[in-house]
Amino acid sequence: MRIDLHAHSNASDGTDSPAELVAAAVAAGLDVVALTDHDTVAGQAEAAAAVRALPPGTLTLVPGAELSCRVDGISMHLLAYLFDPAEPAFAEERELVRTDRFRRGRAVVERCRELGAPISWEQVRRIAGSGSVGRPHIASALVEAGVVATVSDAFTADWLANGGRADVPKHETDPITAVKLVRAAGGVPVFAHPGAVKRGRTVSEQVIRDLAAAGLGGLEVDHVDHDEETRAALRGLAAELGLFTTGSSDYHGSRKTVGLGAFTTAPDAYQQLLDQATGDRPVG
Ligand code: AMP
Ligand code: FE
Ligand code: ZN
Ligand code: FE
């Protein structure tokens, strides 16, 4: 079983449409893929339709989302799987974050322009399409304008990195609240890339303990942004706290270099995720 539990479509900051992502998952030889766009489930219906059009048994789709959270001034991501997308309290919180992404995106573009980058909000809107607007779309605009060579080169202190010259915070949910919202919607919360130091400061071990006490289900351990020591430490903490561990690509299409299935989740961890979920079922 090849199981990849973290991937983005152009409903947020990936470059593949949801149907293209499904085709890419088949081409990568995956048995299970989760679609986890930032703060939105807008891509799920198209992805589900694409999976249902495949010969039965080809691919299973796990619906999910990746929630933008903040604690102690540190941004962090919470993956949520198999929640009821219609549950109102959680749906309202996702909507709040998405709406604030527009205000914040405009402000980031304004900062970039003040710093001499010839980009525009219209350009960013074109790049983002109907997707949940984020810094990677602005990074693509900076690449188009010739300001930086790659999307990744835009995530430095000069431009868009956390705390960088053109970084403007957006509304982000307190993660304890987020864990409870996900569980109340029947979903399973998993802390995404908890040790991704190249993205900025990471939360303390105490925060992970507090999240576990609040209902966290798992930790994403095998991720391109984690080195071996970080993975070993997270695996130890997960065992101590009774959390399952996942591995995933965090695929963003051509906006990042990592391929689908670059990291995968063990079948027993996937089974624990399924056993804990009551809000929705996998497709296919
Ligand atoms: P936002 O959700 O708008 O705050 O932007 C965060 C997104 O930017 C993350 O989900 C990643 O896709 C991307 N990102 C964050 N840090 C980096 C980095 N160092 N290199 C490349 N992409 C990054
Ligand atoms: Fe992203
Ligand atoms: Zn993330
Ligand atoms: Fe992600």
Describe this structure in words.
The protein has 284 residues and is α/β, with parallel strands linked by helices. It is 38% helix and 14% strand. It has nine helices and seven strands. The protein has a seven-stranded mixed sheet. α1 crosses α2 (44-52) and α4 crosses α5 (135-144). The two termini are 15 Å apart. The mean pLDDT is 98. Bound molecules: adenosine monophosphate, fe (iii) ion (2 copies) and zinc ion. Residues 6, 8, 66, 192, 250 line the site of one fe (iii) ion (FE).
Topology:
Elements: E1 3-4, H1 18-27, E2 32-35, H2 44-52, E3 60-71, E4 74-81, H3 88-114, H4 121-128, H5 135-144, H6 175-184, E5 188-191, H7 205-214, E6 218-222, H8 228-241, E7 244-247, H9 267-276
Parallel strand pairs: 1-2, 2-3, 5-6, 6-7
Antiparallel strand pairs: 3-4, 4-5
Helix pairs in contact: 1-2, 4-5
Bound molecules: adenosine monophosphate, fe (iii) ion (2 copies) and zinc ion.
One fe (iii) ion binds next to loops.
Bound molecules: adenosine monophosphate, fe (iii) ion, zinc ion
Helix-strand sequence: EHEHEEHHHHEHEHEH
| Strand arrangement across the biggest beta sheet | 1-2-3-4-5-6-7
Helical residue percent band: 25-40%
What gap, in angstroms, lies between the N and C termini? Answer: 15 Å
Radius of gyration: 18 Å
* Fraction of residues in β-strands: 5-15%
Mean residue pLDDT: 98
Task: Tell me about the largest β-sheet.
Answer: 7 strands, mixed
> How many helices in DSSP terms?
9
Globally, the shape reads globular
The strand count comes to 7
Low-confidence region ranges: none
What is the SS-derived class?
Answer: alpha/beta
